[in-house]
Amino acid sequence: MTKCVRFTHFVACNILGCYVTISVIVYGALLFAYHAEVQEKQKRQIDNTIYLLIQQIKGSSVTSLGSTDLSLDDSGLFFEVCHQLDREGVKGIFLQSADHYTPILDHINKETSALETWVYPFSARNQSMRLSAYVSNDKVWRVFIHRLLWYMGLLFIQTAIIYLLLYYFVVRGLGMAVSGIQQELSQMNLDDPKRLYGNAKFLRFLEYQWILNGMNKIIHGLAASRRELSELNSQLEEKVAQKTQSLEEKNMTLVQLNKKLYTLANTDSLTQVYNRTRFDLLFREHVAMAEHKETYLSLLLIDLDNFKRVNDQFGHQVGDHVLYVTAKLLESVVMNDGIVARWGGEEFAVLLPHIAIDQAQHIAETLRQHLEEASFDDPAIHITMSVGVSQLLLGESGMSLLKRTDAAMYQAKNTGRNQVIVDTGPDEKGIS
């Protein structure tokens, strides 16, 4: 992860780095020029020393070393010259002609640092001669190092002063300029944007005004985009709510239609109990379950006695009412212990899971008594029932159970009506 730095420190450090680089280049050039100047000054001192000594000896007629006619026999002259040059720091003096090389002063050794050589041409005995002077660089380097240290100290002081000035005017100033904008931005609310004013001290700078104007344009653009997005979201939410409400209404309608369809498909429209189709499905399921789990399963088939006479005497509407009341009476007695269905016409079926034949017989008697005692709108109406009862035997099929129960019901009708006949099977033994 990149480490973040303050922009003001970055600007100040770059300015300071540029200044130090330029200062090093300038001071280096000054030191180089100063070094050459020191060397030239030392050469002039030696020139003046030789010239003055020769002028003292030869008279004021000497105008230059090149035009001077010296006598090699004049040992005093060379002694004075060598003595004076030695005091000037000359390490070696050599007199050289075309075929002769004479050392006059020789302090040169292997430990001597690099030497600078100056050659002075002159004439002696009408011969062209050269006086060579070798000077050590030690003195020049001492002066150079002294000046270098002075420049380094000056550069350090200048750098420190400039750093303080930069920190006060640049870092502190830019920090104040940016902090004002930062504080305004931290309190900015895009729902109700305010104009940025920044720091009043910096408004006189054109660049600062450019920055503020640009940021204000961006802020107002963001606020406008936010408002547009909010409006679009509101419209979208409204449309979604409308679609959701429409879907919920359609779903509710579909649920109600499904309920109606289920009711139409599974219940008898007159009595509001299960119809024959639904009963057949439930009967097969419970027979399979009883065989698998070896549990009791009893069946009641009910036929209303003399129901045709009620229809003929009182009308079909009264007959329908009798069927409805009978169905409700069956449901009130059986409740959650069994399944009540209209078998067809004036016949009803009651399926009793987990109930043995003795309890099923008791339920059948209760149903018979309740219907016999039931009262209708017309006191002349009196309805009874004939009931056949049987229990599923081991290994018996559902079809066999239906046949035995139906036979028991017809036996009840044929032997006097208004009674319950129980068929326990050929061996009088049901499922335990």
Automatic annotation (TrEMBL):
Q: Which SMART domains match?
A: GGDEF
- Pfam families assigned: GGDEF (PF00990)
Q: What class of enzyme is it?
A: transferase
The residue ranges of the GGDEF domain are 295-425
Q: Which cofactor does it need?
A: Mg(2+)
Q: Which SUPFAM superfamilies match?
A: Nucleotide cyclase
Listed transmembrane segments: 6-34, 148-170
Which InterPro entries does the record match to this protein?
Answer: Diguanylate_Cyclase, GGDEF_dom, Nucleotide_cyclase, Rev_trsase/Diguanyl_cyclase
Q: What is its EC number?
A: 2.7.7.65
Single Gene Ontology BP term? cell adhesion involved in single-species biofilm formation
An annotated GO cellular component of this protein is: plasma membrane
* Keywords, sorted A to Z: Coiled coil, Membrane, Nucleotidyltransferase, Transferase, Transmembrane, Transmembrane helix
Write out the coiled-coil annotation as residue ranges.
Answer: 219-253
Molecular function GO terms recorded: diguanylate cyclase activity
Q: What's its catalytic activity?
A: 2 GTP = 3',3'-c-di-GMP + 2 diphosphate
Q: Which NCBIfam families match?
A: GGDEF
UniProt protein name: diguanylate cyclase
Q: Which organism is it from?
A: Marinomonas spartinae
Q: Gene name?
A: ydaM_4
